[in-house]
Amino acid sequence: MALWDKLMGELVDIVEWLDDTNDTLAYRFERYQNEIKYGAKLVVREGQVAVFINEGKLADVFKPGTHELTTQNLPILSTLRGWKFGFNSPFKAEVYFCSTRKFTDLKWGTPGPAMMRDKDFGVVRATAFGLYAIRVKDAGTFVKDLVGTDNRFTLAEVSENLRGKIGLRIKEVMPELGIPVLDLEAKVTELGNRLNELEASRRLAERARVLRAHGPVRAERRDRIRIH
């Protein structure tokens, strides 16, 4: 029993994430063979959620607070394999902490100018650039669809993809809006609203896609237009 008690004492009894970065969206809690003591304390701080994965499947999502990991608040424990030693034995699960704070002042821009036909100037070239912000709104889907088995998923891994998609979509849509060139700069807010309306209708037609623009990460834009 002494050896078993020693091993049990070495198992983690506090599961938490102290984020000392400013660019981490998700962090996988590191533990040898992912073993966690039954009855351990899960500490989820404000601006975080904790996602439990068992055998590659989403088990549960915990909001901010201190939680005791038992079968009462984590029913999946009662179905986990390897309970030879009863409910005092450790269990295996992957724990991902996701940051739910808003990441702001991220830059986007159109990949080259968009060709537009204007009634006063004929064919003109216009570029758009600005800032956007993102926030994880569905941590379970985020971990399942984007993070995968990455032990640390950073802002850089998603911002490059979003920046390109935002810029490309705006470049495609700008010529469709029909706003006169001279009014574009003054009507940035209207342009943004109309873009959102167009995107909303396009998303309805794309709901069957696995990854969607309104999926696990929400993006917000602040736009500017430049005319060449």
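Next protein, fold it too.
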Amino acid sequence: MPRPERPSPTFKVVALDFGIKRNIARLLVEQGFDVTIVPARTSADEVRALEPDALFLSNGPGDPAAVEGVQETVRELVQELPTFGICLGHQILGLALGGRTRKLKFGHHGGNQPGQDLATGKVAICAENHGYAVDAESLAEAGEPVRITHVNLNDDTVEGLAHEERPLFSVQYHPEASPGPHDAAYFFSRFREMVARHKAGEAVTGAQVAAGSDL
């Protein structure tokens, strides 16, 4: 079956590379993004010099709190750019918003993890491979208006978050998983929608996009 045509116009996205998978870049390109991948410790000014329309925070291994010199950069850039994070990128976004992460006893590993979208109640079978999670209570304590959008039904850990005032959202599991499952691939089209609405001058938020809301 032929792939659908790439949507237009093209938007420029800078991806901070914490261990990015090739399939993530491919799916961003399919959504009409011109993708520039830069090292994880690229400064905020260096990112701005590329004149992106959006920021992507990639997946990667290990303890998010141990990734030095990144939280401050992300905290600065998310004030300006629509942002989407996956896996480690999701955790780093949580830290940049003032939250904390915690080590899981066993972690989530495999292609059969149940992730529930709290807006719709639907459960996706997800690919996961991580040993840390964003602490939900810490986000509330930080005072940022962040909504928990997805949870893992095995242990109720945070699997997704979205900002209620800014165009930011993230997901813990791997919507780009290849060869699958592909239940969560819709996140890439949600990202494009959010960037397009932001570029059109709309005060769109991550929470609105996560809920499928135009309000």
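About the second fold: The mean pLDDT is 85.
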